[in-house]
Amino acid sequence: MADSLVQLEFAKVVELVVGKTQTPYGRALAVTLTPFNDRTLIEQALCEAQEAGHLLQEGGALPLGSSSDLLPQLGRLQTEGLRLEPEVLRDVQAALEAAAMCRQRLLKSDGCPTLQVFARQLTALPELAAEIRSSIGPRGEILDSASFELADLRDSLKSERNRVKRQLERLLQDETLQGIFQEALITDRNGRYVLPVRADHSGRMKGFVHDVSASGQTLYVEPAVTLESNNRVQTLVHKIVREEERILARLTAAVRKVRQPLADNQTVLARFDLRQAIARLTVELDGVVPELAEQPSLALYDARHPLLVAAARSKSAAPAVVPIDLRLPEECHTLIISGPNTGGKTVALKTAGLLVLMVRAGLPVPCAQGSRLFPFAPVMADIGDEQSIEQNLSTFSGHLLRLRHILEQADSASLVLMDELGTGTDPGEGSALALAAVDHLRQIGARIMATTHLHVVKGYAQLETQVENAAVEFDAETLQPTYRLHYGIPGASHAFTIARRIGLPEKILAAAEAYLGQGEREGVAIIERLQTLQARLDDELSTAQRLRAAAEEDRRRTVQERKELAARRQTIFEETRQQGLGMLAAAEENLRKLFSQMPADGMSSKQRAALTGEVRALQELLPDPLPQGPQQIPAEVAPREILYVPELGIEAEVTRIDGERIELQAGGKKLRQHRLALRQFQPRRFAAQHRPALCIGDRVERKAFLPRLVLVGKRVEDAQGLLGRFLDEALLHGEETLEIVHGAGQGVLRHAVRQFLAERSEVAIFRAAAAEEGGDNVTLVELRH
């Protein structure tokens, strides 16, 4: 197969996944892991793997329960009359409990909607799990709690055995029988209690011989006096065995009824085990889920070969894996990678192919966030030297056979990987064949990644549209490859440089350079200079990007700190302002108290009026107090209700209700707010329903009067004016009881209202409202007519 090498490496990745599973059924499913061709299945598998990773980080591994595969045991249940062993029943119980716990865990989690679909398919069957738990112990023993009859039989057996033992102990202690026992020991033979009697004294003990020692010196005798008791013991043992068999048959019948749900549960748990194993491998490889591109393309940033990453993690002395950027844009159909041997060209090809296969199988891949790829299918590769003496194939013939397979099978959704393009034969002829094959693949729309050392192929990439060169970087100072790719320029093979590093004699190298033509030497020198320049530019670009990112982070932090400072400054200002207002209001109240306490003859009315005017002038200088609104979020809202809008610091009337969205009117303006952004007065307040005065004959119908006045937030003088008109209107409408809402605040308005009421002759009494009606925030008034 042309793609055998990449598929072989994919199989090794599957082995890594298998090693992360916890259950045999999850392991069996992992072994069948293969790339999907359906985009929908790929997206679902990736989503499940991502959610499994979220679960793993959120609360650890899923409780998958026992590691036993139930399917073979469930298959046995097709045979009627078969009884499951206690150990198997314990496995059934563990599987049911695992299904219940996984279902509960997943349905509680917020970040796994896809896995929740499968969790809902799990059947918990708590009654069966509880029945098995109460019947079978942790070591597979049948418990007394399995049935009342079993518990009674076992109690009877214990009592009967104790009776037999007491009878035998009395015989051992009988002085008339001293010397006939080999040792003072009660033992068991065939389920019956016996005594070891010396063979030469057997005539002194009446009973039945059940066994003889190997030496023939000891007879194991059941005394006649214990015969009936031993018989009762045997009867009870048989009854217990029958009862245990009946219990196992009952539990087996219960399991037989739910064979299909148990099998379905195991299928779902196997899926969870596989996704969880993939999540563990993702953490180990530092993998991410790349975006799936709509058009054939590839953009894998900081990509790493997963097998190299796994090897580096398992071996502390292993070299670090160098990440590379693998790019094949939509407008580029072919990427030609060139550069020195051992520079990582082949690894780059295998990494690209392997990561595509992994994504198609639903596996996150080791690359950076923001990577994206198209799920190419098939991925076809001509990598490696597969010459065969048995099949009479040379290296070049092997390449041609794989190339023929690729040309026959490739289409517009294929990714073709070709290593050492055009090598293995005459460079001119090899290049011509290779380029003809590339032309054909480009015409059918396949995407190609290839490596080469041939200048003809490099020049083809430089001249043709939709074909791009990429060079593997080589550090000329250390004479070592860096494995990074530079796009847009061809790579030099650095054959002489590497030969010099290995230690070939300078005489040989000089002769080789002499054989190399002048134009060829100049071309190689230009390519090497281009590579050096590109590497320098890449380093400078990387430094500039780091500096820019740091500057943007500093700017963001500065803006955030300014916002926080401004908010804190505003908070301090408001707190200070409120404290000042409170102090001024308290001072004003103290002045009023002093005035009220001054004797009338101590100051002339003119002087008193002048002082009162100065106090009022001082009040005029005070800023308006900030509105103090209610804090309760309304559970329900009614039309015409007055609500408080904290964001604007105003009261507004409800005009329309649309679910959670409330339309209000305030000051002739309409506004819409969410219910949670509003606050409700307690007790609730409603706007008066105004009606114009109508003239009917010689009678005037007045507007409706609401016996409730709200003065919250009003200045004292304004409140007194409104209160006077309110009392007059109340008298005209014949009202007897009024409600005045003035709020708490510093108590200034409340005191002014009540002092005003005390001076009005039409007011019979006034008092604070009950606590449930507003308490000291509301004053109730009764009028006299």
Question: Helices, strands, pairings?
Answer:
Elements: H1 4-18, H2 24-31, H3 39-59, H4 71-76, H5 86-108, H6 113-119, H7 126-135, H8 148-173, E1 187-189, E2 192-198, E3 207-212, E4 218-223, H9 227-257, H10 259-285, E5 291-292, E6 298-303, H11 306-314, E7 324-328, E8 334-338, H12 345-360, E9 372-373, E10 379-382, H13 395-409, E11 415-418, H14 427-443, E12 447-452, H15 455-463, E13 467-475, E14 480-487, H16 495-502, H17 506-515, H18 518-597, H19 605-621, E15 641-645, E16 650-658, E17 661-666, E18 669-674, E19 679-686, E20 694-696, E21 699-701, E22 708-710, H20 716-732, E23 737-741, H21 748-758, E24 763-768, E25 778-783
Parallel strand pairs: 5-9, 8-12, 8-13, 10-11, 11-12, 22-23
Antiparallel strand pairs: 1-2, 2-4, 3-4, 6-7, 6-9, 13-14, 15-16, 15-19, 16-17, 17-18, 20-21, 23-25, 24-25
Helix pairs in contact: 1-2, 1-12, 2-10, 3-10, 5-7, 5-10, 7-9, 8-9, 20-21
Descriptive overview:
The protein is of the alpha+beta class and 785 residues long. Helix content is 49%, strand content 17%. The chain has 21 helices and 25 strands. A six-stranded mixed beta sheet has the order 10-11-12-8-13-14, with helices on both faces. A five-stranded antiparallel beta sheet has the order 18-17-16-15-19, with no helix packed on it. Strands 1-2-4-3 form a four-stranded antiparallel beta sheet. The longest helix has 80 residues, at 518-597. It is flat.
